[in-house]
Design a protein that fits this description.
With 136 residues, the chain is mostly beta strands. Helix content is 0%, strand content 43%. The strands form three sheets. Strands 3, 4, 5, 8 and 11 form a five-stranded antiparallel beta sheet that branches.
């Protein structure tokens, strides 16, 4: 087994041209396999990033409060289009989670903001989500 230790990867002819082999012969651009934004939210009033708002996120500049269990993720670096993938989960902050939680769109996604809400949540939610797509 070989180990490659580097501080920076850049395509030889242009940025965004690093290709990786996936499986036996398939290839894809390295950036396609990366999560472009994620956050762990402590549903306080207003909502904050976990650990008192000092981290636990990537590419999230702020979290807006749209109301009870409604969130607005503002991206530090915008997506190139609004067709990015979004996935997440929610559960009780303290103790066992009871009942089902669902994260749903709360408005049409844009390249700079993602609005969503938690259905069937309680008043002490931990919400985590991640987004994948192309960044400008």
């Amino acid at each position: 087994m070989s180990t490659l230790t580097v501080d920076n990867l850049k395509g030889k002819t242009a940025a965004k041209t690093v290709t990786v082999t996936v499986g036996a012969t398939a290839t894809q651009p390295l950036e396609n396999g990366l999560i472009k934004a994620w956050v762990s939210i402590d549903d306080t009033n207003p909502p904050i990033k976990r650990n008192s708002g000092t981290g636990d996120s990537l590419n999230i500049s702020s979290i807006g409060d749209g109301g009870a269990l409604q969130f607005e993720l503002n991206f530090s670096n915008h997506f190139s289009n609004a067709a990015y993938a979004f996935a997440g989960s929610a559960g009780n902050r303290d103790g066992a989670t009871t009942g089902d939680r669902t994260l749903v769109n709360d408005a049409t996604p844009t390249t700079s903001v993602k609005h969503f809400r938690v259905i069937a949540g309680g008043s002490d939610e931990d919400v985590s989500c991640m987004l994948a797509g192309d960044i400008l």
